[in-house]
Design a protein that fits this description.
By secondary structure, the protein is α/β, with parallel strands linked by helices. Helix content is 44%, strand content 13%. The strands form two sheets. An eight-stranded mixed sheet has the order 3-2-1-4-5-6-7-8, with helices on both faces. A six-stranded parallel sheet has the order 11-10-9-12-13-14. Bound molecules: nicotinamide-adenine-dinucleotide and uridine-5'-diphosphate-glucose. The site of uridine-5'-diphosphate-glucose has 22 residues, from helix 9 and helix 11. Belongs to the UDP-glucose/GDP-mannose dehydrogenase family.
Length: 435
């Protein structure tokens, strides 16, 4: 099919490349000229495993083109809108102005029978509002909402083989569902479950899923604080409750908490939307989920100060990882970056390192000192904090690392190291909710 993808960030660039990989004829559109120039040259503007390969093959084959001009989308039968919906500073609500701008820019270019498909995460009610405008201004076109569930670091795989497909369609618009079936034929033939529903449900599925995941993480992080107060072990607790299939072990890893461009902003946006709907108490628990999450970062900073003997001033702290998760260069709302900045503000001489995230971290915090290798970061440190569980940090050899640092003290902010191995190599090891 002929497809356009409007907005080529973390979501859109992967979606456009994956659609071309499936054999569709795709044009990617973005207002950011630098991003488009890089993508057109076959170079992703960010780090995502597997993306360079499919982007390069699709651009070389001519199945994938990029443009800053929305008119280049005019030929497409299906238009995916994948622009950002960041958190508004004052209210916490999702800012849908980019979605509106992309949608209205697209309107005059819609061919007869074209299908506009929202992919961005939006407050419930957005699709119905846009569908009304479409009916008034381009009645020959239709709208569907098809939320995206990809995880950064697994974005290509998640797009090509999703867990499920959700289509929010207008009343009686079975044709929109069959067009989307055509787009996703490979996944459907492979047995991917598909849920066809109304706009509101589709919009809510997305934020409900992220709210549930965030709740699961804050639940286990709250347990980690109880474990710290009682000498219990939160990893054994997670293993034990996770064996109950109703609970499940995934997303029960305690640590510095969740970050990124999705979970934090999506729960805040969901709370704000419920408020707008007059449901003032309904999502109060998500406020607690957010607060518990932010408390984990503060707890790690407090533990660091404690381990340094009561003050961070003048002490050298190596922070391993700045991204919000491994296999991504994304530092949006990153707990690791927050911890590094907080310790620096307390007077510590912080050195950060990360395999892929340093450029983004320094763009946000040029005042941070960065080391390009783990070795350089560790050198002379009074305290090491493992903040993002990149494989390179999981595999650190405690004896070799011990020869580099000034003092053998480590806070394992992701509970991924073997406490016994580190302690027997002479380290003061501390996990999160681990005795
Ligand atoms: N990043 C993820 O893993 C992920 C996963 C699922 C859903 N989402 C949702 O997808 C949406 C996009 O997220 P993202 O992480 O890709 O954001 P992003 O900031 O990386 O990308 C958004 C892109 O949209 C472009 N843009 C803004 N206005 C535009 C316009 N009028 N026309 C064309 N391009 C425009 C920006 O230049 C930017 O490149 C959000 O709603 C997010 O919640 C993201
Ligand atoms: O047990 C866990 C699991 C995750 N995290 C943290 O939670 C955050 C989010 O992780 P993850 O969900 O894997 O990454 P995202 O790429 O942000 O993906 C989430 O957000 C996307 C955007 O909405 C959705 O599409 C995905 O389904 C949803 O998982 C990261 O900071 C992780 O370190 C934990 O602290 N403990």
């Amino acid at each position: 099919m002929r497809i356009s993808v409007i907005g080529c960030g973390y979501l859109g660039a992967v979606h456009a490349s994956a659609m071309a990989e499936l054999g569709h004829d795709v044009v990617g559109i973005d207002v950011d000229e630098r991003k488009i120039a890089a993508l057109a040259a076959g170079r992703p503007a960010f780090y995502e495993p597997g993306l360079p390969e499919i982007l390069a093959s699709a651009t070389a084959s001519g199945r994938l083109r990029f443009s800053t001009d929305i008119a280049a989308a005019a030929d497409a039968e299906v238009h995916f809108v994948a622009v950002g919906t960041p958190q508004s500073a004052e209210t916490g609500a999702a800012d849908v102005s980019f979605v509106d701008a992309a949608f209205f820019a697209l309107l005059p270019h819609l061919a007869d029978g074209a299908l506009v498909v929202g992919k961005s995460t939006v407050p419930v009610g957005t699709a119905a509002r846009l569908a009304e405008r479409l009916a008034a201004e381009a009645p020959h076109a239709r709208l569907a909402w098809n939320p995206e569930f990809l995880r950064e670091g697994f974005a290509v795989k998640d797009t090509l083989s999703p867990d499920r497909l959700v289509y929010g369609i207008g009343a009686g618009d079975g044709h929109a569902a069959s067009v989307l079936d055509h787009v996703y034929r490979a996944a459907i033939e492979a047995g991917t479950p598909r849920i066809v529903t109304d706009y509101a449900t589709a919009e809510l599925v997305k934020v409900a899923a992220n709210a549930f995941l965030a709740t699961k993480i804050s639940f286990i992080n709250a347990m980690s604080e109880i474990a710290d107060a009682t000498g219990a072990d939160v990893t054994a607790l997670a293993d034990a409750i996770g064996h109950d299939a109703r609970i499940g072990r995934r997303f029960l890893n305690a640590g510095v908490g969740f970050g990124g461009g999705c979970l934090p902003k999506d729960i805040r946006g969901f709370i704000a939307r419920a408020e707008e709907l007059g449901l003032h108490d309904t999502l109060a628990f998500l406020g607690a989920v957010d607060e518990t999450n932010l408390r984990q970062r503060r707890r790690v900073v407090d533990l660091a100060v404690q381990d340094l003997g009561g003050t961070a001033a003048g002490r050298k702290v190596a922070v391993l990882g700045v991204t919000f998760k491994p296999d991504s260069d994304d530092v949006r709302d990153s707990p690791a970056l927050d911890i590094a900045v907080s310790l620096q503000e307390l007077g510590a001489e912080v050195v950060v390192t990360d395999p892929e995230g340093l450029e983004n971290a320094l763009a946000r915090r040029p005042d941070l000192r960065a080391a390009s290798t783990t070795r350089e970061a560790l050198f002379g440190a009074d305290l090491v904090i493992l903040a993002t569980e990149w494989n390179e940090y999981r595999a650190l050899d405690p004896a070799a690392a011990g020869r580099l640092v000034g003092e053998r003290r480590i806070i394992d902010g992701r509970n991924v190291l073997d406490p016994a191995a580190w302690r027997s190599a002479g380290w003061h090891y501390r996990g999160i909710g681990r005795p």
